[in-house]
Amino acid sequence: MAEREFWRWKEYNWHDENIDWKGCDTITAGVDVGSVSSQAVIMVDGKLYAFASTRTGSDSPQSAQKVMDWALENTGMNLDDIHYKVGTGYGRVNVPFADKAITEIACHARGGNFMYGNTVRTILDMGGQDCKAIHCDERGKVTNFLMNDKCAAGTGRGMEVFADLLAVPIEDIGELSFDVEKEPPPVSSTCVVFAKSEASGLLRKGWPKNKVIAAYCNAMAHRVVTLLERIGVEKDFAITGGIGKNIGVVKRIEDELGIEALKADGDTQTAGAVGAALFGKALLEKSRKS
Amino acid sequence: MKANYGYMDGSGEYYITIDTDHCIECAHHGCLDGCPKGMFEIITDDYDDEVAQIKEEFRKKIKYDCADCKPVKDRPPLPCQEACTPGAIEHSW
User: Fold this and answer.
1) Same structural domain, A169 and A196
2) Which in A119, A198, A217, A226 has the greatest CB count within 10 A?
3) Structural domain boundaries enclosing A176
């Protein structure tokens, strides 16, 4: 019997049936090939039309193609109908159908500006393999950024390691972390391997899973707050990336910073792909003018 | 834009900050030859500006690659900072 993979986020796709893309002037797509998951977003005339989120496999071009095909599913649209396609994420140069590759830093700033509004000035992108603190202006242009991709502490991968260790579905971790009488001290925040062995020790001591989860969420929040404090936090503040969906980490970051993060209507994990699609629109319009 | 390249680990924070707004107006790109390890390169960024950045292969070990220019005693001015006439380069440690 196959073992359950507790660390996996659900894969899904969506499209807006109320939009008739055939009558639209600009159709652009953004494909964010991350280390853990890939997202594709299709925008028509600057409006969100369709998106898909799936797992990144060992083959980045194949993952890009798979997620794009899934976003196009049941829309009646083909890849050739899209006027401009932008690749982003760590696998951005491996998106075979992309017209241009743009860094995920610029795309998350642009996508964050679209999803949270033009008042957002600090974006924390908590991705699968790295964490980025980004400052941006009212147009979503990056003014300052800092990333930490040296180790897995404070990244989505770190959380996945814990979900697997504790056999708790990753989407439940946030809520479960609040089911403690008193906030426990954080486990090691400098290394996921150390944190994992520390957590194993705590479980052996008899700590319930919820308490261990709370200790790790606490450690992760502290880790990224240190990163944020290096460049400073300017209001408004928003969190993108997969960890943005983990209320246990988000709430603890808010508490430590003393600032409430803006809440998004859409999936925080799609911010990079949204930004890439918006870059595509701007580049398409620029090319049409020249 | 201030671009911070480097990392923090259990031993501290190691970042080189490049203020790319200064790079846009810089014509001679002294950083390219100024760094003895050749850590800098000029790229066209996402906003179509020609700016300096730290090469990918150095970003996770700058503490060690910069060590030769940072003796514990009698530290001389950093060659990358001296070579960068617009003053775009800062080190965090």
Assistant:
1) yes
2) A217
3) 118-261
Whether A122 contacts A145, CB under 8 Å: no
The Cα–Cα gap between A29 and A82 comes to 7
Same domain, A66 and A145: no
Instruction: Give the nearest chain A residue to B61 (CA atoms).
Output: A150
d(CA A154, CA A179): 21
pLDDT tens digit string along A232-287? 999 999 999 988 889 999 999 999 999 999 998 889 999 999 999 999 999 999 99
Total domains in chain A come to 2
Q: Indicate yes or no: CB of A150 within 8 angstroms of CB of B8.
A: yes
**In this complex, is the C-beta atom of A142 within 8 Å of any C-beta atom belonging to chain B?**
yes
Rounded to whole angstroms, the Cα distance separating A269 from A186 reads 26
Q: How far apart are CA A231 and CA A227, in angstroms?
A: 7
Coil, strand, or helix at residue A50?
A: strand
The Cα A190–Cα A227 span in angstroms is: 12
CB contact under 8 A, A149 and B4: no
CB A148 within 8 A of CB A142: no
Buried (b) or exposed (e) across A6-32, using 16+ Cβ within 10 A? bbbbeeebebeeebebeebebbbbbbb
What values do phi and psi take at A265, rounded to 5? -75, -40
Which ipTM was obtained for this model?
A: 0.86
B83 sits in which H/E element = helix B79-83
User: Dihedrals φ, ψ of A209, to 5°?
Assistant: -55, -45
Residue in this structure with the two tokens 């999803």, named with its chain if needed: A115
